[in-house]
Structures are given as C-alpha cells and as structure tokens.
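Lab notebook, bench 4. We co-purified these components, and the gel suggests they stay together. Before we commit to crystallization screens, I want a quick structural picture of the whole thing.
Request: model the full complex, all chains together.
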Amino acid sequence: MKIDIQSGIPIYLQITEQIKLSVLSGRYRSGDRLPSVRELAVGLRINPNTVVKAYQMLKDEGITDSRPGGGNFVLAQEGGDMTAQSEDIIMKEFQAVIDKAGMLNVSKERINKLFQKILSERKG
Amino acid sequence: MKIDIQSGIPIYLQITEQIKLSVLSGRYRSGDRLPSVRELAVGLRINPNTVVKAYQMLKDEGITDSRPGGGNFVLAQEGGDMTAQSEDIIMKEFQAVIDKAGMLNVSKERINKLFQKILSERKG
Amino acid sequence: MKIDIQSGIPIYLQITEQIKLSVLSGRYRSGDRLPSVRELAVGLRINPNTVVKAYQMLKDEGITDSRPGGGNFVLAQEGGDMTAQSEDIIMKEFQAVIDKAGMLNVSKERINKLFQKILSERKG
Amino acid sequence: MKIDIQSGIPIYLQITEQIKLSVLSGRYRSGDRLPSVRELAVGLRINPNTVVKAYQMLKDEGITDSRPGGGNFVLAQEGGDMTAQSEDIIMKEFQAVIDKAGMLNVSKERINKLFQKILSERKG
DNA sequence: GTGGTCTAGACCACT
DNA sequence: GTGGTCTAGACCACG
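Here is the predicted assembly.
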C-alpha cells in the first residue's frame, strides 16, 4: 500500500480506497485478514488513529468486520458480481472525464483519438 | 456558473475550476472582465469573501489580474495553444482512469468496450 | 514619469513620490508648472481622478499649489536645504536595509563589502 | 514576532516577511514547526484568520507545508545556499537605494559617506 | 489539539 | 462602484 501525504487527499481515505480496490480486484478474498493497525501505521509512518479510522469506515460500509479476539477480516461481498461493480466504477469515471472534455469543446472524434492513444500505451 | 454546496468540494475551488475551464474553452478571452466579487457572491448566494478567495487564487496562478477600483481581468495565457492544454488535461485524466481499471483487473478490450458505450451516449 | 501598474503600489503614490523626488533633485523648481491632469492621465493611460488625487495630496503637503485660473505649480520649499532633505531620506533607507541585513545575520564587514560592490558599478 | 498594526502594511504580510527572514537567517530550520494558528493569533492579539492567510501564503510559496491535525512545518529550501540568498536580497535593496540617491543627484562620494556614517552606528 | 472553510459584516483604498 | 484586509465566530476534517 502506498500513501501520498502531499496529495491533499485524506490519509484515511487513501487507505480505504486502496483496500476497497484490493477487494474488488480479488487481491483480498473473503476471510482474509487485514494488516494489524499497528503494523500498517508503522509501515506507512502514520498515526495509528488514522488507521483505526479507516478500518472503522470499512467496517461501517460492511466490507470488513472486526473480531473481538482481534483483527479485521474481509467479508463476503453481497451484491454478488464484483466484476460488475468494478466496471460500474470505471464507467462513472469515464463519464466524468467525457463530460469535462465536452466543457472544453473537445469533439467526440477527438476524445476517442486521445483515448485510444492512451490505451494503446498500456500493457495487457 | 453553478455551485454544488453539498459536494464537499470547497466552493472557492469549484469557482476557480469553472473559470479555468471557461478560459481554456475560449468562453473567456484575454482582457475579459470577470463578474465583480459582490455580483458573483449575490448570484451564487455565497459570501463575498469566498469569491475573493477564488479570485485571488486565479490571480496567484497568473490566470487573471485584479486592480482595486478596477475589477478582475483575464490575462493572455502563455504556453500558447489552449487546445493542446485542454487535451493534455483530458489525457491525464484518461490515464488515471485506465490505471485504476488496471488495478481492478479489467482487460484492455473490456476497458475499450465500456468506454465506447459511454462515448456513444454523448451528443455532439 | 513612469508608472508600474503591476507593482501593487497605488498609482497616486507613485505619482506623488516621483514628483517629490523631482522637486528635491531640482528638476522641478519653484514656480514650475506640473503637467495638466488630462495631459498626465492620457500620457500614463490612467484615470484622471487618480491624477487629481495625487495632485491634491501634493497640495495638502504644501509642495504645490493650484491656481484658480488653472494649473498646479511648485512652491518654494521651506525647511531650506533640499540637499539635507534628500540625504535624510537616503540615510533612513540605508538604515532600514542595514537593519534587515542584521536580522539576516550578515556581518558588518560583509554588509560593507556588498555595498561597495554595488556602489562601484554605478556611474557618476 | 512583532506586528505594527499602524504601519499600513497588511498584518499577514508582516508575518510572512518575518518568518521568511527567520528561515533565511537560520532561526527556523527545515522540519521546525511554526506556532499553531491559534497560538500565534492569541500571542499577536489578531484574528486567527489573519494568521491562516499568512501561513497559506508561505505554503503557496513552498516555504512551509501544513497538514490538518498536524501543523505548519518549514520545508528544506531549494536553491541551496541561504547565505547567498540573504546577500542577494540585501544587494537588491542597496541597489534600489543607490538608484534613488542618483535620482536625487547625490554624488557617489556623498552616498558612501552617508552609508559609512549609518553603518558605523551599528553594533556587531 | 491541529488546519481548512465559510459566513457575516465592517472599514479602507483605488478608479 | 471596485478589490483588499480584518475581525468575530462557527463548523468540519484530520491526527
């Protein structure tokens, strides 16, 4: 996990975001245990309270659960198809960029050209 | 200009963002005068100080200049081609979304399919 | 006369300052007529009201006087020795710079060295 | 830190100026923490918002960085040698005074005489 | 505790 | 009329 302390994005949000992506992508599976609060705080050189806040948020959203014995675990995701959820996220972001391009008077054809250029540079 | 007070995005940033886009898209041209602080504040139903903050940010970034008793004026933009600048912005945003899709293990072909679906729904 | 509209220093102050210097240096002598308000405003491309304000200020300070018939004229300066006045101004400014150098922990010897370097580059 | 509320110079500029000088002179070093907004506001008997404005200006100029919940910290200064920077500032100010003296028809020799007089009164 | 944002309202300087 | 500064005080997010 990587934290960009300069980005202006709250640290606890950077943590939750990355864990969510890991769950959606399958890197974390149901039952997997998250790093301990202390462990993550030391690793990222941030305040443990910040990690606690991030983990609490994930718990509130039903993505993880904490066991009394200790530790935070990934829950099986309802709503089933995680691929569909992933694609939903991506489509919404594309929509936003295309809207912005529209405000900048970039034509549909030009948008596509720019997109293909970027995409072609990508591996896999 | 439209402001979303609920969005969590600071109002002064929403203002600067929209004015920047207006400059890049050619809606504002060099020498044009922005609405006065008080005028815009009344129009958006926000505090004049918030507009002042937005305008000073634009001034700091060299996009506008202001004179007490005068007003706020759009400056000629260096870096020349504003179309190129616009496309630069768009490409960077596409890059970010594609990167994210990569983290979610969405294949190149699937990404393109999703994108074309969104783009086809757009007018113009 | 030259005006720097970017400098942040109020235009009317730039005008009064330069006229004062001209009087002290002898470029303007007692009885000389200042440029007319219109003339100066057009020449500097500024608002005539700004020139009026500057001239009024000079009048308030007893440096000039306006005649009902029209025109602003330089008055004989009391306090006699204008050379002394000039040197007073310069000494106060040196004092300020030397104080600042002190705050920056620049030694007396170093200050003098820097000063001599600058002075030697000057003509006359 | 001392503030002169009568001087006409904006308070927030007086603050930024003094902190910049402190950084250049080495009184503040990289990583040092500035007084908190509230602390400084109370100490100077001014409004916290005024301090906020000063601190944000320092941040904009890359002299400090801030983190909500953290505080304001001095950043390592690029451009390396701070002594050189200090002397640069001083030399530019000397240049300005000497130029002004020139406009007042003060001779090179006389300028030097005045300067030495002021400098000799200085301790250190 | 920290900084960041916003409102409300005042006063000033400039054109 | 314009922008610029400051105060007072509130609320939020972050660590």
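The mean pLDDT of chain C is 85. Worth comparing against the SEC data before the next meeting. The first strand of chain C starts at residue 64 and ends at 66.
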